[in-house]
Amino acid sequence: MQMMSNLKQGSPASGSWRTQFYLSRNTKIAIGFLLPSIVLLAAIILFPIGYSLALTFQSYSLVIPGKTGQWAGFENYLKFLGDKAFWAALGRVGLFTLLAVSFEVVIGVAFAYLLNAIRFGRRLLTSLLLIPTILTPVVIGLMFNLIFNAQFGLFNYLLKLAGIQITDGILNNPSTAFAALVAIDVWEWMPFIALIMLAGMQAIPEQPIEAAQIDGANGWQIFWQVMMPMLRPVLIVAILFRAAEAIREFDKVYILTGGGPGTATEVADLYLYRVSFSNWDLSYGATLGMVMFTLAMVVAVLYFFITVKRGEEQR
Amino acid sequence: MIVIKRRDVRNGLIFSIALIILLLMLVPYLWLALTAVKNRVDIFSIPPKFFITPSWENFHVAFVEKGFLQSLRNSIIVALSSTLITLFAGVPAAYSLTRFSTRGNNLYLFFLLAARLLPGIVLAVPLFILFSKARLINNYSAVVLSHITFNLPFAVWMMRSFFLEVPIALDEAATMDGCTPFATFTKIILPLVKGGLVATGIFCLINSWNEFLLALILTGRETATMPVAIPGLMTPLGTFWGQIAAVGTVTTLPVIIFALIVQKHIVQGMTGGAIQGE
To answer: Which range is most confident: A139-143, B97-101, B102-106, B165-169?
Structure first.
């Protein structure tokens, strides 16, 4: 790693041409290795996004007659600015992301702390812990649909055992449906935060913690004043990653509520899906896609500067 | 005489608490698996039944009579193809990014990251139009290519983290012994990251296997993958919960098994190499 920075500065101390061969500018060979991926990504990501951008200035639908790609200027963008349903869906997914990620962080960090205190048998626990995170999201949606079923669902039955009688399924009521969606996301992704934070905690050296213990710090103080400052970079990466995923929530909502009841759980990506593939207004769908694209870019820039810049500092 | 240390008691206590929490968390999934082996009457019984004689009827109806075997085959074809193409294009790219410094390295890494964080719906519209025009909707190639859009950026980032762990001195030694850059890559370095390669491949398979939105838009009746086919069991006439549970269990079991195989790399996999695991 040290050598890398030396070579970047063109240090003469880096030896013969052979040692300079790697890590020095060797564009021709690099292109040979990179080319297949560049060609592929240009074809399936760059070109489609460029195509989509061109589409935003047109009136295009594969289905609706008369919308065959006429020049529409900024019509789609003006429509987007005044589209209350879209802004509402964006606000909804924003709230969903904020709530879900907050709970995931609090519970996930607490659970990681619990697992970190275990000295043997941890492997079994982490095996169980990772299951919710890797399950197929569509199956998670269906699974909770079954659990929350108003007539024969396990959830209503357990509520009844606990003395709480509800006449309707919780997915049929706007506020409880939204809460259920958040809860399911926490169920699915709390383990993600927990596993990452556990890995972070394992990497903390023993000495500072022992030193704090000798100085008479209690567990709470050690956690907040010794461990957390060291875990912060890892936590930030995990949060950004989670936020980028939560903001594009689609699968579970599509299966669980279809955005309902009413529009209570209609998140941004579901609204975009409706515009594009139910109303077949593809050029407008592309326009809203550009908005989501911009949001994703903001997260990507933050993420990139935090991870890559941090990595370079460490070198 | 067995000496029980206080530390062991404490460990056992915390272990038990964590285990109970986790088992409670997994109740919904266990409930799904239990529903899969219930008969039609038991599924709808109130109060819910916990002890039943297992029946394989749901599996038979779904896979043999309703054609879910075909969806299973589709999922396997799509996941394998997209993973193989991803690795062929992505692994050399990841190697290059850790070995050769070009002006565009950071730019390319950023592009790949942006691609990975890109919501599927953003690509869904243009890909749908382009594949429609090429008459490739309901053809495996459409959904396979669409899955490469997220798998390739993921694989490059993940493999990059494995290549970074291999000292560059090895490449230099190989070059001095007369290896070409390509031979150095395939014969010297690649065998050293075998574990990472397998882990990356498995994560790619899981990503593709679990993907819903792009497959929903780009496949048809004959090419539908499992996530796309399962909601078809929710019909206006009624929902076939037993079959949904059966198919859902079959869809998720391989994912769990594969994830456990690469458990060592799970943190690296989930963050695309940004954070190293234990």
So the answer is: A139-143
Verify that B156 and B25 share a domain, yes or no. Answer: no
Statement to judge: residues B108 and B211 lie in one domain: yes
Chain B neighbors of A114, CB-CB under 8 A: 14, 17-18
Separation in Å, CA B37 to CA A131, B26, B42, B250: 21, 17, 10, 12
Q: pLDDT tens for residues B114-155?
A: 998 899 999 999 999 999 999 999 999 999 999 999 999 999
CB-nearest to A139 from B11, B251, B260 is B251
pTM: 0.91
Find the domain containing B153 and state its range.
Answer: 61-270
Each residue's pLDDT tens digit, A259-289: 889 899 999 999 999 999 999 999 999 999 9
Distance in Å, alpha carbon of B149 to nearest chain A alpha carbon: 6
Which of A26, A34, A119 should we substitute to test contact with B (largest number of B Cβ atoms within 10 Å)? A34
Position B117 in a domain: yes
The answer to whether residue B278 sits within a structural domain is no
Tell me the C-alpha distance between A20 and A26, whole Å: 10
Write out the residue limits of the CATH 1.10.3720.10 domain(s) in chain A: 77-314
Q: What is the pLDDT of residue A18?
A: 44
Render pLDDT for A203-257 as a digit per residue (tens, 0 to 9). 899 899 899 989 988 888 999 999 999 999 889 989 998 999 999 999 999 999 9
Q: Count Cβ atoms below 10 Å from residue A120 Cβ, excluding itself.
A: 10
CATH hierarchy code of domain A77-314: 1.10.3720.10
* Residues of A in Cβ contact (< 8 Å) with B251: 136, 139
CA-to-CA distance for A209 and A219, rounded, in angstroms?
A: 10
Chain center to CA of A213: 37
Say if the Cβ atoms of B102 and A25 lie within 8 Å.
yes
Kindly state whether residues B131 and B227 are assigned to the same domain: yes
Cα separation, B68 vs B61, whole angstroms: 9
Rounded to a whole number, what is the distance in Å from the CA of A149 to chain B's nearest CA?
10
Distances (CA, A) of A35 to A28, A135, A203, B96, B260: 10, 34, 37, 10, 34
CA distance A20 to chain B (A): 9
Which residue in the set A27, A151, A237 is minimally distant from B271, CB to CB? A237
